[in-house]
Amino acid sequence: MYDYIKGTLVSKQTAKNASIIVECGNIGYLINTTLRTVNLAGEENSQIKVYTTLIHREDSMTLCGFLNREDRDIFNILLSVSGVGMKVALVLLDEFSGYDLISAVIRGDYKELSRAKGVGPKMAQKIVIELKDKLINWQKTAPVDISDIKDTENQESISNESVSEVQAVLLSLGYSPDETKKAIKLALNTAEKINSSEEILKEALRYLAQE
Fold it and tell me: Which one of 24, 56, 125, 171 is at 20 to 30 Å from 79 when CA atoms are compared?
């Protein structure tokens, strides 16, 4: 319903559940978020843009939001894992940056995810299994074309499989094909010593977060 809300940061709350209030059009929006986001949100009465998700349940509607689209989209895909609700998703994004979380999933490192408060080994394994399938296997249902991404003269050491894997992850996070290709091209052309899917993904997400 709301892609983002841009307005004045009225207040920040860190006790119990981290949240901010943003005023836009004379309406104050209570937005649940992470402590990380609250700390980066700036001073009260400053202007802020928050990427949001509306969670609609039978008895309530709750807004969650983040300062960049990447975290919002990763939050949404976390909610698609059975048994993962708003609180667990927020805890994970408080403990890990979006890149670190996705990287751990791709590596299958459930022990890393279980470091987050309230996320036990069984839940961490469930998250890894379900998310890895959603992220990596995107191309099985929507094949991706990487023919115009790589500069074959300068990037022969980078495998097509690595590029295809990164593109699949970004598409599954909700980025458009054009956004995805642009970010991967920038990552490949500007980063030094980049030769794995994790390194490409890290750089591509960094560029997308700046958009």
Answer: 24
Which residues are bridge partners to 22 per DSSP? 9, 29
Q: Please give the DSSP secondary-structure letter assigned to residue 84.
A: -
pTM: 0.76
How far is residue 79's CA from residue 203's CA, in Å, rounded to a whole number? 25
Domain 72-134 falls under CATH 3.40.50.1820? no
Q: Which two tokens stand for residue 137?
A: 């296997």
Contact in structure between 158 and 188 (CB atoms under 8 Å): yes
**Of the candidates 61, 4, 7, 62, which has an alpha carbon nearest to the alpha carbon of residue 31?**
62
| CA–CA gap between residue 128 and residue 208 (Å, rounded) | 23
CATH of 4-66 given 3.30.420.340, 1.10.1660.10, 2.40.50.140, 3.40.5.10: 2.40.50.140
Mean pLDDT of 52-62: 90
Mean pLDDT of 81-100: 90
Residue 147 has pLDDT above 70, yes or no: no
Distances (CA, A) of 30 to 11, 39, 42, 91: 9, 16, 16, 18
In 3D, which of 126, 121, 131 has the Cα closest to residue 172?
A: 131
Domain spans, the chain: 4-66, 72-134, 138-210
